[in-house]
Amino acid sequence: MKYKILLPLLMSGVLFNACSKTDDKPIVDTKPDTILESYYPGSSMDVVELAIYTRDTMINNPEVIRSFIDRNVSADAKNSFYLGVSSIPVPESNARLDFLNDNRVRYNGINMQIMGYKDSTILISEYTSSPMPSGGSSCAVLLNKIPEYNPYTDCPDGNCSTYRKTTPLLINGANYIAPLLTYAVKTSDCAATLSEIPAINIKNGDLRSSLGTGDSVLIQYVNLPLVKK
Fold first, then answer.
1. Could you say which of 11, 81, 154, 196 is the most buried, measured as most Cβ atoms within 10 Å of its Cβ?
2. Is 114 a member of any domain?
3. pLDDT tens-digit readout, 82-109
4. Do the beta carbons of residue 74 and residue 81 sit within 8 Å?
5. Pairing relation of β-strands 175-186 and 110-118?
6. What is the residue range of 40's domain?
7. Number of domains the chain is built from
């Protein structure tokens, strides 16, 4: 595949330019686009996981999950969790993944920069920076801990003014997978659901160790295949 010629030019490991201080200049994509390859959503996607995590346990009982959804998930997001199924049809969409020239991709119409690769994962970042989160409720803090790639990945002390959203794409043979996370949280004083669902991300491998007493996290992990046609 043509774009793979570009990947060895990247340093090994994971490369980021996701965190910036106030005086950093924004990164602008001004290159003309040449599409090298295109990948389209498959016909169905797999529900890999639907579970509730606490500091001490993981619960996948459907009745317990249904009760959690009824009590803690916002009304407009309840139908985004798929109970009792292992596969669902992919909604009709014009979304596609284009690999472009100069270490870039375009997904859902947004140009992004290939930042690096690790194992079977390619990491891409938006050119437009987003403001770093500031404070908020215990639920807002917990929501930011769930995905592996979040505003604090490269700025753990929060001492950055902006960050570039980083998205992982999984290599699946000759094709790709967009990992979709949908999640909601409950703490001792609030409940909240991710506002933009699903997120293209993977679950934080250290999630459970970051949970406190009274914290519960509902996570749904779905694999959306992106197939070359």
1. 81
2. yes
3. 999 999 999 887 689 999 999 999 998 8
4. no
5. unpaired
6. 2-8+33-228
7. 1
